[in-house]
Amino acid sequence: MRNLSTTLVLSAVVLFASTPVFAEGNNRPGPLPSANSPSTQNVNTDVNGFPIIDEAAAKKKRLRVLAGITRGWSKSDRAALAPLLTAKDAFLDARACDETVNDGVPGYLAQGYQREADEDSFSKTFRRVAKGKLRLHTSKESSDEDGKLNEVYRFVQTGDEVVWSQGSGDVTKSGVQETERRWIAYRDAWVRFASVKFPDMPRASLIFALTKERVSQLLELAEIRRNEAASPAESKELVDALEVLRATPVHLGAATDAAAASSGAGTAASPAKVLR
After folding, report:
1. Based on C-alpha coordinates, what's the Rg of the chain?
2. β 171-172/162-164 pair status
3. Which residues, including other chains, have CB under 8 Å from residue 60's CB and lie 6 or more apart?
4. What is the pLDDT of residues 151-181, one digit of tens each?
5. Per-residue model confidence (pLDDT) at position 23
6. What's the CA gap between 200 and 197, in Å, rounded?
7. In this predicted structure, what is the pLDDT of residue 105?
């Protein structure tokens, strides 16, 4: 498994190095491999070198960007946006709480890095939608990506309840399920908002973009599930299934059914059947 702590830290640095959105450090422990690199010299860090995110300043910056994009919108358009922002916050809160893999980074910081990375991703999608630059996709492509999401979700839900044990704030199947519920509400809020503000935008293109991003998020956890397999036989089954999932953007029931059977979990139902 790749070093997720390095990924989280570097993501935080990339997101915030160009703006003064870090507060003074605290005493959170833990090393930062690249703490002395040029990319971290202009941000505040704690005594061990971790970048410290000033969440209030970061939020203020995002609100300024949002205000610029929505300047001139009607009251009805702004009203349509509000439920999307609420659903987004609920989903990202769940992501930070239930799907953050610390892997050496103190949990408090890791969750902050995860949340800010996800906020940045939302902002990029929002700008593409508002500017009419979302890549076009067909309903068939959107449906295929949804099928892949269902299979990756089922993959993560195989095996033991704990997907990744990290002492405090374990990643669990129930936590992933709750996050998936909130993602579905977030996706649906996006569709409702877009139907009001951007009625000519193809619905399939938006759903494809949102689903593809969620697939990527769950694939990170699927890799962990594979690497934490309880036995060599189980590991091989999961490796084979995951390789198919990564390579094929369509429904993959046979592969993940085999993985579920090998873990003794049976065939898990898809998010569409369990969560919606």
Report:
1. 20
2. antiparallel
3. none
4. 999 999 988 899 888 766 789 999 999 999 9
5. 30
6. 9
7. 75
With contact defined as beta carbons under 8 Å apart, do 151 and 249 qualify?
A: no
Residue 15 is predicted with a pLDDT of 42
Instruction: Find the angle CA(234)-CA(217)-CA(120) to the nearest 5 degrees.
Output: 160
Q: Which two tokens stand for residue 168?
A: 């405090």
Read off the tokens for 42: 């202009």
pTM reported for the whole predicted model: 0.73
Low-confidence ranges of the chain (pLDDT < 70): 1-43, 46-48, 167-168, 229-276
Residue type at 253?
A: G
Neighbours of 267 (CB within 10 A): 14
Amino acid at 245: L
Strand partners, 237: none
> What pLDDT score does 261 carry?
39
Residues of the chain by 3-state class (helix, strand, coil), percent to 5: 65, 5, 35
Determine contact, residues 102/6, Cβ cutoff 8 Å.
no
Report d(CA 128, CA 207) in Å as an integer.
14
CA distances from residue 85 to 61, 82, 155 in whole angstroms, order as listed: 15, 5, 30
Domain boundaries, the chain: 4-274
**171 strand-pairing partners:** 164
Residues in the chain: 276
